Amino acid sequence: MSYSQQDSLLSPLRKAQSRLLYRQGRARDAADQAEVFHHAVMQGASQHYSLAQREAWAGALPRDGSAWLARQALYTTLVAECDGRCVGFLELDATRAHIVTLYVWPSLGGRGIGMQLLELAESQLRDAGMRRVIIEASLCLADSLAHRGWKSHGEEWVERAGERLPRHSMSKGLH
């Protein structure tokens, strides 16, 4: 395949990437955050968790923008925006150097959006003098993080609406 043929095949991906903007969360993102969370759990996690587990997980937070707006007051929220809509987000407890949540719209998974949000959070933590970042990573995310230098401290379980969900406690040094 010639370079020009390869370039034309990659063009739609480049256009989508060029429309991405990474920024601090805003009040207007809250409703989109609710939808991204719901769909990331219900669709994006379907290869790793049962339907009952996903329903319990998705039900742990309301599918309502007001709940996510309240969370913006608790956590530093970083957003990936495409065409004016939040398509991914990360919530950071900067005082504890803890990634609280990381979700990307399922059809946009695997394009580096989540990793870019993580890099932005890591940069903020480094600038604040933190030496290490922690996350409780779902089974969907743990392998990808391990390949990027995150250390697993073992599997743990969290309960949501009577369902047990496995996840990995992980950390990464910030140098």
UniProtKB/TrEMBL annotation:
<dbReference type="GO" id="GO:0016747">
    <property type="term" value="F:acyltransferase activity, transferring groups other than amino-acyl groups"/>
</dbReference>
<keyword id="KW-0808">Transferase</keyword>
<protein>
    <recommendedName>
        <fullName>N-acetyltransferase domain-containing protein</fullName>
    </recommendedName>
</protein>
<keyword id="KW-0012">Acyltransferase</keyword>
<dbReference type="InterPro" id="IPR016181">
    <property type="entry name" value="Acyl_CoA_acyltransferase"/>
</dbReference>
<dbReference type="InterPro" id="IPR000182">
    <property type="entry name" value="GNAT_dom"/>
</dbReference>
<dbReference type="Pfam" id="PF13673">
    <property type="entry name" value="Acetyltransf_10"/>
</dbReference>
<dbReference type="InterPro" id="IPR050832">
    <property type="entry name" value="Bact_Acetyltransf"/>
</dbReference>
<feature type="domain" description="N-acetyltransferase">
    <location>
        <begin position="35"/>
        <end position="175"/>
    </location>
</feature>
